[in-house]
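FW: tagging you since you asked about this chain on Friday. Here's the raw sequence from the shared folder, copied in full. Didn't touch anything.
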Amino acid sequence: MKSPSLPRTHLSGNATAVKMAAVLPLLIIVLLSKVTGHEIENSSKFPLVVSTWPFLEAVRAGWRAINGGLSSTDAVVEGCSACELLRCDGTVGPGGSPDENSESTIDALIMNGATMEVGAVASMRYVKDGIKAARLVMLYTEHTMLAGDQASAFAISMGLPGPSNLSSTESMEKWAKWRENQCQPNFRKNVLPMNSCGPYHLKTDLNVGDNTCLVDDFCENIRMKSSHVDFHNHDTISMAIFDKSGHIAVGTSTNGASFKIPGRVGDGPIAGSSAYADDEVGACGATGDGDIMMRFLPCYQVVESMRLGMEPRRAAKDAISRIAKKYPNFVGAVFAVDKNGTHAGACYGWTFQYSVRSPSMDDVEVFTIYP
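HL: got it, structure written out here
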């Protein structure tokens, strides 16, 4: 960390003492800033916005907000809200990723890296503003997460629009094609369907009725297809924003995995999995197969590794490799940013891109990471 440069002055006699008296307080401030790990003057690296994927408009919205003087938490809301409104990749906001019953639901999270406060909503129906609902949980409750219809009721009671139909023409067409494909792929395992789309029963249940296809080749094909779900069908916006003083907030929003079992909660609203921030260390955002990633809390791992001295690139690779070691078919990625603004990414099973906007850039820049 470089100290603020002081004007070079040639001093002599009493003038030296007078001018040194004026300079000493500044020198003390500089020393204190080194001890606390925060720059007193605005660093040229901040503000800073980093997000999963080339969600350019979302990053621009976050940048306008933070550069315009909003707090890092409010700027994260602006950035993620832009993605929800635009329905980024069809996997953020309403109108995407239908579950087995054709419904779209929302998972979202926000975290304040200065206070470690977290607000989240999970499997939220009828309310399209996921990140705003998460902020309401953080600001107006002592809880960390609300889920399901109760999360929806809370959000509406606090002023968010609803109830709303979160499905769209696109999501319903996607669901209809899935039904035509005998409800494949899906997230079921160790079960057999009475018909191509269920209801499902345990393999060991011998009292499922005469219509079951326990020994039918068709059911064998279903079982094999179900083990090869294409995890490219769901992504998350995970965004980290540093304000001009280096204070950090992170946020996520997603409508989850397509054709998920109703009630499923992914890693999106899980602090430490989809995102994590600590002003003293840095931040992390994640995307990919949330059902597996939440078992490892990769973003918590990244931040704690950086706390122990790992550079962001190594911390990101380490977190991803821990998952891949146990799940070689896993697909996912993380970005890591330390408190100095140094950023990096790591991925497994796919090519990953993340977006950055800083004072040194004319516009958002996209970084590509290969497995």
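FW: Residues 13-36 form the longest helix (24 residues).
HL: agreed, and Residues 337 and 343 are 4 Å apart (CA to CA).
FW: great, closing this out.
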